[in-house]
Design brief:
By secondary structure, this protein is an alpha+beta fold. The chain has three domains: about 200 residues, Immunoglobulin-like; about 140 residues, Neutral Protease, domain 2 (Orthogonal Bundle); about 140 residues, Serine Threonine Protein Phosphatase 5, Tetratricopeptide repeat (Alpha Horseshoe). The strands form five sheets. It has a seven-stranded mixed beta sheet, with no helix packed on it. Strands 15-16-17-19-18 form a five-stranded mixed beta sheet. It has a four-stranded antiparallel beta sheet with strand order 9-10-14-12, with no helix packed on it. Helix 13 crosses helix 14, helix 14 packs parallel to helix 16 and helix 17 crosses helix 19.
Length: about 625
């Protein structure tokens, strides 16, 4: 969408026919959260949802009623919801059906405003609706796309602004509400949500949920499938398909330790239970921090617990993101930078400093690659973004995650860990179940941590970190003794007399292998890769992180022996983190895109829209899955 046209269209839709201003404070609040929502919370805002839904796998459709309790201003005339590709059937105001509702013009990727006429004393609005094929949050899987191959599966992915494709809602991270739900599914399947959850299949197919803590709409989540639950700790457990649940419970058996470690650092866990659901491989992310129930990719099941930093990351979101939430997607680093920082503190506490140092080094490598990729878009390397008129997915890069982490880590080293921990504990406690902006955090930082000392604020280069491109010169340096040992093996392998049999990889973790593979030169050559493969069988690796990194080297060096496994991996795995680099490498290796498009045409039906939206643009496919190539 043209940036200027998009902004004008959105502002026109927001402002046309509106009521008089309630107050300057409400107006400022509204402007702060409307970047990607049509809602007018200063006039009318939801505070509780009762969702009643039926899941129809035959039609691949949800038929539902969203019943909202609302708060209104004294001059309220309407309440505005976000919808996208929903069929709205009926609307009720305080239990009486109304015809006084309308749907506004469509704005690319934002959808449409659904406006309902109300009065200042209106207490409830009910919307009867059904989803369509355009519900990008939903992925319907046939039995062959699951581990068990017998039952279908459904899962949602609402972040960033896809909740509006399966629930009419005020789809801004700045608006929080509690919810309850009744979901009916086919007998023999289990439904779970980002709420209180069952631990066994109910033969009636009817499930009831409550979420008593207020959440934003991007944390609304639902999954339906043949699921089994295993308890792994006093307040932790895992869900997975029956054939995977034992391996999942083993992989995540340290979850309770992680939870207790997190509480020791930043205070009591506020969500009662913490569970992880391992989804089919089409899930587009490593994990999604849905409250009480993290959704996770099966690609972290390595068999040796070596990829469970992802669980620590999603658990950390229970404080940074879920408890204290970025008010707009421009402030996304407040969710993710804090979470990466907290994740590594948890990993350090549970597994030791040397382990955490490796994670930090890999994160720095990811950040360096991201900064290089964004050379022509320096404004996108700011922590505070300007995403007005853009899809918020554009801001979901390693800048928010890793630059955010290094900013916080730099502050920690400047003021000392003890003092910084005291500050962050107060930050989470004082902002619990609320939203904040970057500017509010910086005010808190300046006043409560630096005690309004302008010299310290300047010395930390805070404005340069937040509002400037790249990495400021005061960024901490990082190192890893374990990676130093790997560097010696890289040098040995690349030397004239070096070969795979000469290098020492005893007791290497996933992280050491990733470091090794990342430090092979791009033109290392197919013969060197063959040597490594013959000794370590990397092409057949069951560790998805190692396999994905190895496949990049294979594509770059035209190592044909890996071709079949590359194709199989891309068809089987839907995690965008792996897909984008691999398809990009295929496109670079063959600018005609012939091979990349041939694989993608087979794989695309297995991917979630979050992945296809990115890959369609890269490979020149249209939204119907057709290519011009």
């Amino acid at each position: 969408m043209n940036r200027v046209v998009g902004i004008i269209s959105l502002l026109a839709l927001i402002s046309c026919g509106g009521p008089s201003e309630s107050s300057q404070e409400n107006k400022a609040k509204e402007e702060n959260i409307l970047t990607h929502s049509f809602a007018r919370p200063a006039e009318a805002q939801v505070n509780h949802l009762n969702l009643i839904a039926t899941v129809d796998f035959d039609q691949r459709q949800l038929k539902a009623s969203a019943i909202y309790d609302i708060e209104t201003a004294s001059d309220a005339k309407r309440i505005v919801f976000d919808i996208r590709n929903l069929t709205i059937e009926k609307v009720f105001v305080d239990s009486a059906e109304t015809k006084d509702w309308w749907i506004g013009p469509e704005v690319p990727f934002l959808g449409q405003p659904l406006e309902v006429a109300i009065a200042p004393n209106t207490k409830q609005v009910r919307i009867d609706y059904s989803t369509t094929e355009g519900a990008e949050a939903l992925q319907w899987l046939n039995p062959q796309q699951t581990a068990g191959k017998v039952h279908p599966f459904l899962f949602t992915q609402s972040q960033a602004i896809l909740a509006r494709t399966w629930i009419p809602c005020q789809d801004s991270p700045g608006i929080r509400y509690t919810y309850e739900a009744t979901v009916t599914v086919p007998s023999g399947l289990m439904a779970v949500m980002s709420a209180s959850n069952p631990t066994a299949i109910d033969s009636s197919g009817v499930y009831h949920f409550t979420m008593n803590q207020p959440i934003p709409s991007y944390l609304m989540a639902l999954a339906v499938g043949d699921l089994e639950f295993r308890k792994v700790g006093e307040s932790t457990g895992v869900y997975a398909e029956p054939s995977m649940v034992q391996a999942t419970a083993f992989e995540f058996e340290d979850m309770q330790k992680m939870l207790e470690s997190a509480e020791k650092i930043y205070g009591k866990y506020a969500w009662d239970q913490y569970d992880v659901l391992v989804l089919p491989p089409s899930f587009p992310f490593g994990g999604m921090e849905n409250p009480r129930l993290t959704f996770a990719t099966p690609t972290i099941l390595a068999g040796d617990k070596s990829l469970t930093a992802l669980v620590a990351h999603e658990l950390a979101h229970s404080w940074s993101g879920n408890l204290v939430t970025n008010r707009t997607w421009d402030d996304f680093w407040l969710n993710e930078g804090f979470t990466v920082y907290f994740e590594r503190r948890i990993m350090e506490d549970v597994y030791g400093t040397a382990y955490a140092d490796m994670l930090t080094m890999l994160g720095k490598q990811d950040l360096d690659m991201e900064l290089k990729a964004l050379t022509d878009k320096p404004e996108d390397t700011h922590l505070k973004l300007d995403l007005l008129g853009r899809n918020p997915d554009d801001g979901m890069t390693n800048i928010a995650y890793e630059k955010g982490y290094f900013f916080l880590r730099t502050i920690e080293e400047y003021v000392g860990r003890e003092k910084f921990d005291q500050f962050l504990n107060e930050h989470f406690a004082s902002n619990a179940f609320q939203t904040i902006t970057t500017e509010e955090f910086l005010t808190h930082l300046k006043e409560d941590l630096l005690l309004n000392d302008q010299a310290q604020y300047a010395a930390l280069k805070i404005d340069e970190w937040v509002y400037g491109p790249g990495l400021p010169e005061n960024c901490i340096s990082v190192s890893s003794a374990l990676f130093d040992q790997v560097n010696k093996q890289v040098e040995l392998f690349l030397s004239a007399e070096g070969n795979a049999n000469a290098i020492d990889t005893i007791d290497w973790t996933t992280h050491q292998w990733l470091h090794f593979l990342r430090h092979l030169p791009g033109d290392v050559g197919a013969s060197k890769l063959k040597d490594l493969d013959q000794r370590f069988a990397l092409t057949k690796s069951g560790n998805s992180e190692i396999a994905a990194e190895w496949f990049l080297r294979a594509i770059e060096n035209d190592y044909a022996a890996a071709n079949d496994e590359i194709e199989s991996f891309l068809i089987r795995v839907g995690r965008r983190k792996f897909l984008m680099p691999m398809y990009s490498a295929l496109a670079k290796a063959d600018p005609t895109l012939e091979r990349a498009c041939a694989i993608y045409a087979q794989a695309r039906p297995n991917y979630h829209s979050v992945s296809t939206n990115s890959l369609d643009e890269l490979l020149e496919f249209d939204s119907n899955g057709q290519t011009a190539k």
